[in-house]
Design brief:
- By secondary structure, the protein is mainly β.
- 10% of the residues lie in helices and 40% in strands.
- It is globular and about 30 Å long.
């Protein structure tokens, strides 16, 4: 499998059990709390795909995998 390019990543923060994005890659809103659960994040770190519905603009981000700092997605975000 080809490596995922870095322009397909987006940073996230984990705060008190909630997953936040510093800004929405689609509409630009700041400090967006996602609906992603800690269990879904754990599975994404194991390579299981996850869907995150952005509450600010109703777009859906498909997460292919995750690490401690970034969500690796199926589309170019940068």
């Amino acid at each position: 499998m080809k490596p995922i390019p870095f322009d397909h990543t987006w940073p996230y923060d984990l705060q008190m059990g909630d997953i936040y994005l510093p800004s929405c890659p689609y509409c630009g809103n700041d400090n967006v709390m996602t609906n992603m659960s800690l269990e879904a994040l754990k599975r994404a770190k194991e390579g299981v795909k996850a869907r995150v519905n952005m509450p600010c603009c109703r777009k859906t981000m498909i997460i292919i995998e995750a690490d401690e700092d970034y969500l690796w997605t199926s589309e170019k975000l940068r």
